[in-house]
Amino acid sequence: MSLEITCTRNEADKKQISRCKETIENSSGSLEAISKILSLAGSEVRLKILFLLNIENELCPCDIADILEMSVPAVSQHIRKMKDAGIITSRREGQTLYYSLVKSEDNVLNGVFNSISARKKTA
Q: What long-range pairs does 65-74 form, CB within 8 A, spacing at least 24?
């Protein structure tokens, strides 16, 4: 069974189409940035890391590896992708690196984090 989508409009609403095109053009920078964040959060492991950083404020890779029962190198690879994208930041204390969410980027994910917390409470 295939889904066939058809369009049967009599006439295009040129004002609406123009307005929507302009809205997309004016929002292209924001859409690109949010798309990048959501793409990275699309990995279950990275979403777990982001969720943990949201809850704990900061964690070191060793703690994340212990929590997720993964190797430190595997966690580090995920952290590197998110750090390169500007979603998380780090600070050094002696030889230990601590990672946290970039505050300007966590607003994009707050709805996702709230949804995770809400589902946890109802389960």
A: 70/45, 74/45
